[in-house]
Design a protein that fits this description.
By secondary structure, the protein is α/β, with parallel strands linked by helices. It is about 45% helix and about 15% strand. The strands form four sheets. The protein has a four-stranded mixed β-sheet, with helices on both faces. It has a four-stranded antiparallel β-sheet with strand order 6-9-11-7, with helices on both faces. The protein has a three-stranded antiparallel β-sheet with strand order 10-8-12. Helix 4 packs across helix 9 and helix 12 crosses helix 13.
């Protein structure tokens, strides 16, 4: 049958608002991945999908075709549930770092394949690589044995996983077709499903520092990803969370590892602890290690307080190449500069994306994929939404090595803050939860 399929007919059908069959989707994505279809035809199909969307009946086969373009990890011989978390990204979002060892310390295995930061958002891999010696490029065998023996491994995307996504993402970048909910949902979920997990918790962010700023679009993305997971037979929960201000007090790679250590020692900022506990409880529930979210919350709080999660994190660092004292030898920036409030008033609004850009300008992030990162650069915040500041009071400390970067970063940071005479209410961190069939929303 696939002998009679032609790329041009598939493009036309999508262009005209029709529905593609699973066979047509498979044909197109398989042929494109192996180089039998040219970029110009894939670009045309991506634009047609961008404009017309994908129905639920198309989204599952589209994701499956991407997923099966490469290796799908099989953890079938390793007992117990394997559960991961994915965040759509934000500013100061270091939650994976305390979360993964906390969940592993509670007995649920966490095979986590993460990405790098780009633009205003940070990436888990860059944060981990600020730990001296830490390697994120484990072989598949080393990844599997870490999951079997320690219950946790934190690695980067490998060439074998979802090659279709690698090609399509580069094309989307060049054809202005990135901001499409079905294309984003299938891109994220194909990579997550390739990890061989039983269940997945999605942290879908909305607000000024999120990829999807608007709550209704973030909700649509969450629903699409949950539907894909459900059609693949996985337990999935999406937790919608506010990114209307940075998470925690520290932004920047080594600084975020420092804050992680605070959380793993039973302290740390309240919002980082709260989100670690919420997402951890959800992972334990999906991994069937607890019967209710409250039981899950109590278990996660326990391992943060009693040092078990920190022990697992230390073991993970050593297993992935860090020296035993690596966490005591995090890089520190040579220079710092205190940013002061230009007037008295309440912090009424924060353009969180600009705070992320300010950290990037200091060297903590990259404007293009090829840019180098300064692991020690970043920002330590001294105020949150709703706080009152006197004129001249510290708002933040900028940390950097390259003195030439400080002035533009300070200007960008200050431009992000709106100070006013009335206190603004802070929105709740957790907005809502969307769960797949088989996950008890009331537990
Ligand atoms: N992250 C992904 O992995 N894919 C997208 O399309 C967007 C964000």
């Amino acid at each position: 049958m696939s002998g009679s399929l032609r790329a041009v007919d598939i493009i036309r059908r999508k262009r005209d608002g029709g529905t593609l069959s699973p066979e047509e989707i498979r044909f197109f994505l398989e042929r494109y991945t192996v180089g039998e279809l040219p970029d110009y035809q894939a670009s045309a199909l991506l634009m047609a999908v961008f404009v017309r969307g994908l129905s639920d009946d198309e989204l599952g086969p589209w994701t499956q075709a991407m997923l099966h373009s490469g290796v799908v990890v099989d953890f079938g011989d390793i007992p117990g549930a394997k559960v991961d978390k994915h965040s759509t990204g934000g500013v100061g979002d270091k939650i994976s770092l305390p979360l993964a060892p906390a969940v592993a310390a509670c007995g649920v295995r966490v095979p986590m394949i993460s990405g790098r930061g780009l633009g205003h958002t940070g990436g888990t891999l860059d944060k981990l690589e600020s730990i001296p010696g830490f390697r994120v490029d484990l072989s598949m065998d080393a990844f599997r044995s870490a999951i079997a023996e320690l219950g946790i491994a934190l690695i980067g995307q490998t060439a074998e996983i979802c090659p279709a996504d690698k090609k399509l993402y580069a094309l989307r970048d060049a054809t202005s077709t990135v901001e499409s909910i079905p294309l984003i949902a299938s891109s994220i979920m194909s990579k997550k499903l390739a990890e061989g997990i039983d269940a997945l918790v999605l942290d879908v962010k909305h607000g000024s520092g999120a990829f999807m700023k608007d709550l209704s679009r973030a909700t649509a993305l969450a629903r699409a990803m949950v539907a894909i997971g459900e059609s693949a037979g996985k337990r999935v929960s999406a937790v919608l969370t506010d990114m209307g201000q940075p998470l925690g007090e520290k932004i920047g790679n080594a600084l975020e590892v420092e804050e992680t250590l605070d959380v793993l020692r039973g302290a740390g900022p309240a919002d980082v602890v709260l989100l670690t506990v919420e997402l951890g409880a959800e992972m334990l529930l999906l991994g069937e290690a607890v019967r209710s979210r409250d039981e899950g919350r109590a278990r996660i709080r326990d391992v943060l307080q009693n040092g078990r999660a920190l022990e697992v994190f230390r073991a993970c660092v050593v297993r992935q190449g860090g020296r035993p004292d690596a966490l005591e030898r995090l890089p520190r920036a040579r220079h710092s500069h205190v940013v002061r409030a230009p007037r008295s008033g309440f912090v009424r609004a924060i353009d969180t994306e600009s705070v992320g850009v300010a950290a990037m300008l200091l060297g903590a992030g990259r404007a293009t994929k090829e840019d180098p990162i300064d692991p020690s650069a970043g920002i330590v915040l001294a105020c949150r939404l709703g706080d009152h500041l006197e004129a001249g009071q510290p708002m933040a400390t900028l940390c950097f090595n390259d003195v030439a970067r400080a002035a533009s970063a300070e200007a960008r940071f200050l431009s992000a803050y709106t100070l006013g005479d009335e206190r603004a209410a802070s929105p709740p961190l957790v907005t809502m939860r969307i769960v797949s069939k088989g996950v008890d929303s009331a537990a």
